[in-house]
Write the C-alpha cells for this entry.
Amino acid sequence: MMNRESIVKALREKGIKLTPQRLAIIEVLIERNDDHPGAGVIYREARKKIRRISLSTVYATLGEFSRRGIIKTLQFDQMENRYEGNLAEHVNLICKGCGKIIDYEAPISLDPAKVAKKTGFQMLDSRLEYYGYCRDCAGRPKGKRDKILL
Amino acid sequence: MMNRESIVKALREKGIKLTPQRLAIIEVLIERNDDHPGAGVIYREARKKIRRISLSTVYATLGEFSRRGIIKTLQFDQMENRYEGNLAEHVNLICKGCGKIIDYEAPISLDPAKVAKKTGFQMLDSRLEYYGYCRDCAGRPKGKRDKILL
DNA sequence: AGCTAATCTGGAATGATTCTGAATTGTATA
DNA sequence: TATACAATTCAGAATCATTCCAGATTAGCT
C-alpha cells in the first residue's frame, strides 16, 4: 500500500495513462506521505524532479486520483487542501498551530446499515478529524501558535 | 439551547454588543438550524429582516460567534462553509447530491487522555463527517446527483 | 510509424472569504 | 439624558486556492 508499484498497477488497471508528470506526483505523494502535502508543496517538489509540469496539471492529477479512489483529499478552506495515501479508516489529528496532520488509528465507525435504517442516508466515505495542538505547538507561547503556517 | 434568549444572554455575558444585524443573524440561525445554512443564505435571509446589513458583517459576525464558541463552523472548499448551533458532539451526514447536512447523534469519541499520552496531541474540537447520499438523492438517476447544488 | 483520445500547459476566470479605513452606533458612565 | 469611545458596520478592493479554457503535446494501441 502506497508504494510506486501498487499505484502504477492501479493506474494501468483503471486505464489511466502513465505520464512523467503523474509519476513525479506519485513519487512526491509517497516520499511525503507523512506530511499530507498540499497542492503547492506537491507542485514544488514535483518540479524538482521534472522541469515541465504546471500547477494545473497537479490539480487535475490529484483530482483524478482522488475521484478514482487512489488517494484521499482532505478539504479545508483556511488552508490548502491536503492529500493522503492512507485509505484505511483512521482519525486525523490536525494541529492548529503548524498544520501538521497526524494519523491516529482507532476503531471509530458507525454501522452503515444502522444509519441507513434510521435516516435513509447511504454512507460512502468519512472524514474524522480532531483539531488541537501537537506536542510541539502545545508548549509554544500562546501568541505564536494561532496561525496555520506550513 | 439554540433559542434567542440563551444566545442573547451568552452575548451579554461575553461582552459582545447586541446590534440589529446580529439579532437578525441569530434569528436566521435559529429558524434555519436544521439547514446548516451558509453565509450566502444567512445574508439573504437576514436581509429580509433588516434592510441594512452587508455580507462583510455576516462574515464578521459568524466568525466572531464561532471563535467565541457560540456556533460551530463547518469548513468546506467545494461549497460554502456552513454554520450550526448544535454544539453537542455528533456526526454530520453530508449529502453529495444536494448538500443537505443531517445531524446524527452517536456516542463516537476518542479518549483525549489516551490520545495525548500516545501522541502528545491536545484535542480541542472535532469534525466527524460521513459523505454519501441522502434518502432523496440516493433514488435519483446517477447523472443528476454528483454536484452539490444548494 | 501513425492515430486519437487523453493529457498537459500557462494564463485568465472564479468565487468564497478577508481586508481596509472611514462612518456609525451600543453601552457604560457621569 | 448627554458624552465618550471602543466595538461594530459598511462597500469595495484584495486575496488566493482552485477551476476553466483552448490550443499544443503525447501515451499507448494497431
Notes: Residues 55-67 of chain A form the longest helix (13 residues). Chain A touches chain B at residues 75-78, 81, 91, 93, 95-96, 102, 104, 106, 108, 110, 115, 118-135, 138 (CB under 8 Å).
